[in-house]
Structure to design on (402 residues):
C-alpha cells in the first residue's frame, strides 16, 4: 500500500510553496516521522515528515511551486525494510579532535552526520575548515570530502574567475522585495535622527550582567532597554504606534514590537507581543527565543504576523547611520546603530562618550514632524536616564505628582 504525502496547510494566507530540496532521495527507505523534504512559503521555511516507514517515491521536483494540498510524494509501506539499513539516529554532537600545538583552538562541539563525523575523526580534519550544507548547519559527507579535496580554500570556489551564477529568487526573497517596494511607493516616508549617550546603560550592564545571567539565565543586552524605552514613548505618542487602514486610522493601546532579524534566507521580523507589560528579563528571553528560531528557520506564521512598531539594529553589522524602511502596514521603525566613542561637549568641556545614532523612519501621512521628533527625543531621554524606565518618569517627580 502506498500512502500519499501532500503539501500541508501552513497559514491562512499561504496558497503555494516552493519545494526547496529533498532531504531523502527517490527510492530511499524512510522511517516514520523522519524529515524527507524542505519547503518554503513566502514567509517561512518548514519541513515535511514521513507519515509511515517505507520506500520513498518522489513526485514533485526541487524548485517546483506547489499548491496547498498538491501531492509531493508517496511512500510504499508494504515493502520490507532492506537489510543493513538502520534507523537514523538524531544529529550527533561530535567532539572535535584535539588541536595540535600549531593549530588554533577549535569548537568543542560540531553538528555532523555519523558518516561525516567518522571521516572528520579519521582524517584529523579541523571542523572549522568544513563548510556545512546540511539542514540547520549540519556537516554531511560531501562537505568533508570537498574540504579534503580542496585544502586551504572554501569548497566550490575558484580564484580569479569571471563566472556568473544565476539562482531562482525564493518566495521569501520575492515577498521581501515586494514589501520594500510597496513601502517606498505607498508611504510618505521621512527619517529623523538623534544620538544617545550610552554611558549609563553600558555602566548598568557592566555592573549587573553576571548577576542578571545567574538570576534569569539570559544575558542582559541592549534590546531590552530599547524595547522598554520605545514602549513608554509609543504610549505617549500613539500616532507612532498606529497604522492607516483605508481612510481610517487604527490606534493600539498595546505595543507589539517587531524585531528585525537576519535569517539564513533573508530578513524576518518576529513579534514580541505586549512588550509594554514585560520585564527586562522576559524581553531578553523572548529575543533569544525568536532569534534562535529565525536562525534555524523555525519561526511560525503567527510569530511573524502583526506588530505595531519595529526596531532594527544595523549596529551589529557595523552600520554607523542608516535610514531604515518602514515595515508596512506599520507607520514607523527605529534604527539602532554602532556604538562609537566620540568627543562631546559636556558643561563646556570636551569628553569622550560612547555614542549611538538613532534613526526613526515614519509615515508622514499619519505622523507629524512634532510627533516623530518628540518621540525620538523621549526615547533618547529614557535611554540616557535608565531609572526612568521603571515608571516612565522621574521617581522624584512621580513622588511629588509633578
Amino acid at each position: 500500500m502506498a500512502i500519499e504525502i501532500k503539501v500541508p496547510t501552513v497559514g491562512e494566507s499561504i496558497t503555494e510553496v516552493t519545494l526547496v530540496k529533498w532531504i531523502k532521495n527517490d527510492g530511499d527507505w524512510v522511517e516514520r516521522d523522519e524529515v524527507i523534504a524542505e519547503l518554503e512559503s513566502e514567509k517561512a521555511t518548514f519541513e515535511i515528515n514521513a507519515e509511515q516507514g517505507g520506500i520513498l517515491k518522489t513526485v514533485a521536483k526541487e524548485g517546483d511551486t506547489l499548491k496547498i494540498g498538491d501531492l509531493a510524494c508517496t511512500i510504499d509501506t508494504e515493502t520490507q525494510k532492506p537489510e543493513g539499513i538502520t534507523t537514523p539516529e538524531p544529529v550527533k554532537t561530535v567532539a572535535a579532535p584535539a588541536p595540535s600545538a600549531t593549530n588554533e583552538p577549535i569548537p568543542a562541539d560540531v553538528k555532523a552526520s555519523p558518516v561525516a563525523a567518522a571521516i572528520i575523526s579519521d582524517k584529523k580534519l579541523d571542523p572549522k575548515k568544513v563548510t556545512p550544507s546540511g539542514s540547520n548547519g549540519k556537516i554531511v559527507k560531501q562537505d568533508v570530502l570537498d574540504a579534503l579535496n580542496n585544502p586551504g580554500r572554501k569548497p566550490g570556489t575558484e580564484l580569479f574567475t569571471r563566472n556568473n551564477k544565476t539562482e531562482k529568487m525564493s518566495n521569501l526573497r520575492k515577498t521581501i522585495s515586494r514589501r520594500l517596494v510597496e513601502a517606498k511607493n505607498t508611504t510618505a516616508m521621512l527619517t529623523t535622527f538623534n544620538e544617545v549617550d550610552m554611558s549609563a546603560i553600558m555602566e548598568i550592564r557592566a555592573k549587573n550582567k553576571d548577576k542578571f545571567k545567574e538570576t534569569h539565565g539570559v544575558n542582559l543586552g541592549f534590546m531590552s532597554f530599547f524595547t522598554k524605552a520605545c514602549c513608554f514613548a509609543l504610549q505617549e505618542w500613539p500616532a507612532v504606534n498606529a497604522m492607516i487602514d483605508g481612510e481610517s486610522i487604527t490606534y493600539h493601546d498595546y505595543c507589539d514590537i517587531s524585531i528585525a532579524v537576519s535569517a539564513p534566507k533573508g530578513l524576518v521580523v518576529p513579534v514580541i507581543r505586549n512588550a509594554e507589560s514585560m520585564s527586562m528579563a522576559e524581553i531578553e528571553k523572548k529575543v533569544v527565543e525568536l532569534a534562535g528560531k529565525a536562525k534555524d528557520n523555525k519561526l511560525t506564521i503567527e510569530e511573524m504576523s502583526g506588530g505595531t512598531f519595529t526596531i532594527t539594529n544595523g549596529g551589529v553589522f557595523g552600520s554607523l547611520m542608516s535610514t531604515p524602511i518602514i515595515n508596512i502596514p506599520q507607520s514607523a521603525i527605529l534604527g539602532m546603530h554602532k556604538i562609537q566613542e566620540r568627543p562631546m561637549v559636556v558643561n563646556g568641556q570636551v569628553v569622550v562618550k560612547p555614542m549611538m545614532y538613532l534613526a526613526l523612519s515614519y509615515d508622514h501621512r499619519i505622523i507629524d514632524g512634532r510627533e516623530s521628533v518628540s518621540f525620538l527625543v523621549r526615547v533618547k531621554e529614557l535611554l540616557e536616564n535608565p531609572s526612568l524606565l521603571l515608571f516612565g518618569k522621574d521617581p522624584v517627580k512621580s513622588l511629588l505628582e509633578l
Remarks:
- DSSP finds nine helices and 21 strands in the chain.
- The two ends are 78 Å apart (CA to CA).
- Residues 199-216 form the longest helix (18 residues).
